[in-house]
Amino acid sequence: MIALGCDQGGYELMQEVKKHLDARGLEYKDFGTYSSASVDYPIYGKKVAHAVADGECEKGILICGTGIGISITANKVKGIRAALCHDVFSAEATRLHNDANVLAMGGRVVGPGLALMIVDKFLDTPFSGEERHARRIGMIEE
Ligand code: RB5
Question: Whose alpha carbon is nearest atom 3 of ligand 1?
Fold first, then answer.
């Protein structure tokens, strides 16, 4: 189960992400927002971060205008490693190296074509499991 959250800056792109996840047959829980009306992104960043941190969802996808505010919010929650990615290389690297559990993007930064490639790379890349990366992830929580 993938937790989804966005504000008005990410709302349109999130509709594309949902269509894409539907097409792939991947289950998600949409924590909102549910329209393009102005809202406060920390509400949605926290909902998704807690769903992932509590184990209700395995991964999360967050989208605001830049991806910055919503990723900062998510990273305040213990156990969350939210990665702001606007390229496919970073999406792959953050799974391999950081075992990132939340992907953040900016709906005003990337178009849907690139965003969906980033989503696929993030969801389909496993953590490398290498000792040095596991050690460093452990150090984040210390
Ligand atoms: C909302 O206008 C905008 O500030 C928000 O979507 C995001 O970019 C914050 O980091």
Answer: 65
